[in-house]
Design brief:
5-stranded mixed beta barrel, single chain, two-stranded antiparallel ribbon, OB fold (Dihydrolipoamide Acetyltransferase, E2P), 149 residues, 2 domains, 4 helices
Length: 149
């Protein structure tokens, strides 16, 4: 009886380990959901207007960054950089925990390539920080990519 009981315990433990591994693999390799849009206007260094497939348009504020406001040092540089990279182009929007900010703008990561790769190299959010055109500004709960530097 003890051998059977031990055998069941071992099989149960192995089953739990296998399920845990499968769950971790699924979580790590699951592709991120992104929505393809066209950038129809650049408002400032960290805000754009995106046009969706149905023709609707929404203001989009970039998550995790804060670019200089009009009248502040670096405003024109951040605006020009964002305009050059995004205006008239296809980008992919990825959401986080909150959908909109207090001004009604969508809060999104803006991917310039639809790839599951380096946040810092493939999002305008990360590129603005890397190029010293914006500061990192993570506001909880929207911190999905905070460690993807």
């Amino acid at each position: 009886m003890d051998k059977i009981s031990d055998n069941i315990k071992v099989k149960t433990a192995l089953a739990i380990i296998v399920l845990a591994i499968i769950g971790v693999k699924y979580y790590v390799t699951e592709p991120l959901e992104r929505i393809e849009v066209q950038v129809v206007k650049v408002i400032d260094g960290d805000t754009i207007v995106a046009e969706f497939e149905d023709g609707s348009q929404e203001k989009v504020r970039f998550i995790g960054v804060n670019a200089p406001e009009e009248g502040e040092d670096g405003y024109e540089e951040a605006l020009d950089y964002t305009t050059e990279l995004l205006y008239g182009k296809t980008v992919w929007l990825e959401s986080d925990k909150e959908d909109k900010d207090q001004y009604g703008r969508l809060l999104r990561y803006v991917w310039i390539e639809d790839l599951n790769k380096n946040y810092k190299d493939k999002t305008i959010n990360g590129l603005l920080v890397r190029e010293n055109l914006a500061e990192e500004s993570w506001i909880k709960p929207n911190v999905k990519h905070i460690n993807n530097k």
